[in-house]
Amino acid sequence: CGPFDLASSDRILSLVDLDLEERAVGLRSLNGVRLTSKLLDLTRRHRTVYRECLRAVRLWASAAGIYSNVQGYMGGVNLALLVAHVLLSAPPNDDGTDPRSSATELLLCFFSTFAHWKWPEPVHLVPVQRSSPHLNADAAAKVGQYVWDPKANPRDGTHRMPILTCVYPAANSAYSVGRPQLRRMTAELAEAERALRKIHRGEKDWSALLRDRVGDFFARHAAFVEVRLSARTPVHLKAWERWIERIVRILAVDLEGAPPGEEEEGAAPTRVEDVRAYPYARILRNPDRAGEGPEAETVRSSSLYVALKFAPGIEEIDLTARARLFLRRARQFEEFELGMDLEILCVQGRREAEKGAKRMSWKASKRAGRGRGARAAGGGKSVGGRGAH
């Protein structure tokens, strides 16, 4: 068969005959090609509308700061599957028109659908295959164990936002989504639905949906954890950012309750309802600054932010254990270069972070020893008075 048939056929999976770890990598690589082929096939009848709608959804997600698969948000594959799901299953509008008639109509259907989706109910484009008739018994046994199945695999049952691929073996493309990320995506989807309905009524223009919303994120929250990175060259900073992005996703989850055994001695354990984390999935550049010493090089710097909301009555949250655990993960970076540094700051608003005001921090690099602890003040009307949403 030709290359296209090979990519879209389950028979190609029988060629993956490696050890367990390499087999998983091989399946992901093959299924990336097969998934693209399948999506093109499923959306062929409405190709232009699908592509225009998907482009708008990606612009919206980026502007809202929730477009990063690495940080536990939605990436390009996730959004492609969600838009395809709406395209294939959208019911007629109230006036009887087809939502596939234009990208704008399909976009409204997208937000109306997923602003109210009952997660963890899975999203799938085709029925999930438990086996394939195109594989022999040996190949079927190897490949079948990777089918997403919460009944057979308890780990699959912990997934918060199952968005299943439409090729065999079906996998959850959004397995890295955590509780903080899902909460923020749900809120952003609901806000986008309201904005788009106003656009439809002529009350707002498209900037209400697609404008950069970084200012809104900082205006909406009062307390933040800032992860500030620095390096001597743009190349080193980019590599450092890629690594830290991966573990900020875990930090956001940890901030809502320290892992077992990680609380500081004598500190009251943090309950899930005490604090809620809202990570922002974009890296923000800081001004370059001069290094120290007569031959000092310019220091490049950037920051990632996680907003915090405290429950009413919460006056103080001890973040020491979470910070130290995060720094231990950061120090596992294998491509570390001299000059790479990392600091975690607890700040009240981004302007204070830029000024260096009220900096309560933990700092660590390869040359630094243990991080130093601090407490993040939280309660009171300015931060915790309205409670967590």
TrEMBL record:
Gene3D superfamilies: 1.10.1410.10, Poly(A) polymerase predicted RNA binding domain (3.30.70.590). GO terms for cellular component: nucleus. Residues 358-373 have a biased composition (Basic residues). Keywords: ATP-binding, mRNA processing, Nucleotide-binding, Nucleus, Transferase. This is polynucleotide adenylyltransferase. Belongs to the poly(A) polymerase family. Residues 50-210 form the Poly(A) polymerase central domain. SUPFAM superfamilies: PAP/Archaeal CCA-adding enzyme, C-terminal domain (SSF55003), PAP/OAS1 substrate-binding domain (SSF81631). Its main location: nucleus. It comes from the Eukaryota. Residues 356-389 are annotated as: Disordered. Its EC number is 2.7.7.19. It is found in: Nucleus. It comes from Corethron hystrix. GO terms for biological process: mRNA processing; RNA 3'-end processing. Residues 376-389 have a biased composition (Gly residues). GO terms for molecular function: ATP binding; poly(A) RNA polymerase activity; RNA binding.
